[in-house]
Amino acid sequence: MLELILGIIVLVALISLIFVVYHNKFKISIIKMEEAENNIDLLLQKKLDLLKRAKPIVIKELKLDFFLDAIENDNIDELNHFELNELLKKSFNEFFQILDENEKLFKSEALVRIIEELNSNEVELVAAVKFYNDTVVTFNQLIVSFPSNIIRLFFRYKKKEFYNHEKREIYEILKDN
Question: What is the pLDDT averaged over residues 104-132?
């Protein structure tokens, strides 16, 4: 009888330990994703500010009527970080396309400083997105694998979205294996 009670206690302790370990893995992933999201939001805001600073210089130098109008949209504050990232990526590419076509813009020291800051910001943003996506892969693997998928049910964790399709495809391949 004592052996049965001891066995039950050991089994409950083992199940509790597994529960705690996997719950902590979820919590660590969530904290990392939130940290990455905060960094991404800051970097996206900086990118937006830099593009807004560059816009009047380019308009003045090239005497343009329209340039980077998407970044002046009143609804830009309502975009989530995925949508803002896509909008800024398009605006960033439009800006550098104009730069490639107009060498005279590089005569402006202010614009050259903005370009340097944009390039530095872009490197940091790519790193932050990579960190976020890597953490999402780990989190989503926990969602679908045993025994962590049982813990997911208790806490109603849902799969997270990636910043780009490349990571989504990698995750789908890993999930199928």
Answer: 92
